Amino acid sequence: MFADDDKITARETLFFIVASMIEVGTLTGAKRLAGEVGPDLWLAHTLGYLFALPGILIIVKLSQRFPRHGFGEYSRIIAGPVLGWILSAILVAYWLFISGRVLRSISDLVRVTLLDRTPFEVIVLSYLAAATYISWYGIEPLARLSILLMISVVPAIVILFLAALPLVRPEHFLPFLAQGPWPVLKSGIKQIADWEEMSLFFILIPFMNRPEKAAKAAFFGSFVVWVFVLYVMSLSVGVTGSDFAKTLLAPPIAALDASEIPGAFIERLGVTFTGLWVAIAFPTIASLLLAMAVVVSQMFGLKDHRLLILPLAGLTSVVALLPLNTVELATFFEFLTPFGIVVLLAIPLLLYVTAIIRGVKGG
Amino acid sequence: MMRAIAAMALVVLMPLLSGCWDKVEIDRRAFVLGAAVDLAPQSGKVESHGPTETAGRGSFMLTLEVPVLRLTSAAGGGGGTGGGLHGGGKPTWVIASTGDSVFRIVSQMATRSNKVLYFGHQQVLIVGEDLARQHDLREALDFWVRDPEFTWSLRVLVAQGAAKDILNARPELAQSASMFLRDQLEQKRKTSRFIDMNLITFFSKLTEGRDFLLGRVSVSEGKDLKVAGSGVIKGGKLLGWLGEEETMAAQLATGEAQGGEIVIHDPENPRTAMTLEIDSTERQIKADVKDGRPSFTINVEMKYAIAELNGSVETVDNEMIARAEKAASHVVEEMIRAIVEKLQNQFEADVLGLGSYLEKHHNREWKKIAKNWDRVYPNVPVSIKVTTKILRTGLAF
């Protein structure tokens, strides 16, 4: 079924990208979006997807022009050695802060909801150790882990959330566009940055055995994520209402915790849900570690990227521990929104246009 | 060499990986079944069946009910002969204390218990009348929003009188007051005379600043618990009470009545009393705003089954059903009209959600009157239309 050559199929790529995309941002994103646009969060999320989609496809098209090269190499081919190197450094820095944010957010959540006596550093290091181990062995095991998690955890979460349906109040989605379309549009533009892990396509193409199918994997992968996040966020806010959701740390956990399945063995659905979510944060951190290592090795012309994973994991833990408290965590990483729009839209667009104008193509 | 080091590392790590920091064995936990929050008594003395202590200045009094498991099993298996800790025949431990924050009181209680107080299975939260009248409930009960141990499905009630008296009650049919209340609230398919509200809905309404009804619980002779009627919550505080019938009428008007009954008399045969069991209730509101003045029409569609026919028992035919439907519509219309008037004139509390409807469906008009809504609401015209369908006749026909 699997070829042991560190190449992945288009289907594995799809699972890999979905597993990387679904992370703690979905849990905390409901709070942020409810604060920004209230009951219109479903629309802001959808607009964000529609706005991000062209950028995602440009990243894929750009990378497909260089099927044997990763971003660290083709950015230099297109923009020259200095500018290309700087762009690669920007991308690595972006991934470093994303992985730091994911690590910190999920560790905080685990600490608050599940393991309140476990030292915080132990939770962080456990996550990093597992992610480092997975990424050390390359993209193939990571893709297989993604498949395993996605076919087991995601359906379980979808089924669990059905229990929240009886508590959903349709009026929690009203009024529609009470503040006019502009706040929703503005939030939709900011939502582009929520598709951060789609930037992994900058390095994925050389790992694919059929690179021409990358666009299909990107499109279907992002579509699955859009549907899943829409489902989780809408049901959560349908239960809590947007006013209350914006005061909660993770509205989906509260919504599920309020739900009951009559006669079910499991009483506390919120805890079960958090336990499942803990598992799906691993692939995100692992894939970002791998991507960083690959681009850094390309920047410095190293043959083996694996040795870089350990120091990058260390750096990730440093970034994760930078915010001093929960409130600072919410504000500290705010710069990732404009940063994300630059990485997901501006940089690929500029490079793609330049590559076309200059007629540059990889072998 | 590397393999040997890895194997050694695994062996060394094994003892460390076998446990977890957060482990608390089940027999080391004291499961809190119910919590009651009151204003701390002025004298500083707390009457309780359990030990009492004061922590801090004493703004709140917290009473917890915890099952004593060895007595629970004895009572359950041996017909209740095990008796309670305090001779009341109830195998639960009721502990009360005062303090200036709920968390502080819980910390203080930890000095009185050899087991870890665990709130993960709390069934009910009861708010005392004085506390509910004097404090914004969102502010007073913040502990239940912030602490991750609670489940959001626990039920919230307001006590007529002191909340601690509810947990000190000795209901005949249950081993604990908290379990009695939780089981009793399952009866909402039988009656709409009380409000069943979970913690998440409670805080959602408080955060949105809505007026709403909260289930009322009372105790008589220190023994019998009754959940019936409701407290009117406005601006986060308790304003007053609605009786059982009024609570049912309010739930008919909001479409939340899931069960219950009405009794009607056939106009052509007044000796005949027909009891109709509510099958379902649907509510629709229509609003009309003219010159900034809103008016509302509440359309309620009721579906029933005939539960009982007393007096002259005759064959149920379509004519009789038509007459019964008309009479039922009239009865429910009058019930709703009375409660709307009471809520508008006596309480000035919009618990039926008319303002919320305007905000959600006529947002532009709502923005113009939102600030003055409290002044506008008591005078808005509300018309009520009830349609009735009797779908089933029971086993007799």
Brief sketch in words of this structure:
By secondary structure, chain A is mainly α. Chain A has 17 helices and no strands.
For the record, give the distance between the C-alpha atoms at the N and C termini of chain B, rounded to a whole number.
88 Å
Approximate strand percentage of chain B: 25-35%
Structural class of chain B: alpha/beta
Structural class determined from secondary elements of chain A: mainly alpha
Ranges of chain A where pLDDT stays below 50 over 5 or more residues in a row are none
Shape of chain A: globular
| Average pLDDT taken over every residue of chain A | 90
In spatial order, strands of the major sheet of chain B run 3-5-4-2-7-8-9-10-11
Distance between the termini of chain A: 29 Å
Q: Can you count the helices of chain A?
A: 17
Order of helices and strands of chain A: HHHHHHHHHHHHHHHHH
| Residues in helices of chain A, as a percent range | over 70%
Radius of gyration of chain A: 20 Å
Which parts of chain B are unreliable, with pLDDT below 50 for 5 consecutive residues or more?
A: 77-87
The description of the largest β-sheet of chain B is: 9 strands, mixed
Beta-strand residue percentage of chain A: under 5%
Features:
A: 363 residues; 0% strand; B: 397 residues; alpha/beta; nine-stranded mixed beta sheet; four-stranded mixed beta sheet; 14 helices
What would you note in describing this structure?
The complex is a heterodimer of chains A (363) and B (397). In chain A, helix 1 runs parallel beside helix 10 and helix 5 (81-113) crosses helix 15 (306-320). Chain A is globular and about 60 Å long. Chain A has helices at 10-21, 25-37, 41-64, 71-79, 81-113, 120-136, 139-162, 181-191, 201-204, 214-240, 242-245, 251-258, 269-280, 282-299, 306-320, 326-332, 336-358. Chain A has 363 residues and is mostly helical. Chain B is α/β, with parallel strands linked by helices and 397 residues long. Chain B is globular, with a radius of gyration of 26 Å. Mean pLDDT of chain B is 86; it is low at 77-87. The interface between A and B is medium-sized, with 30 and 24 residues.
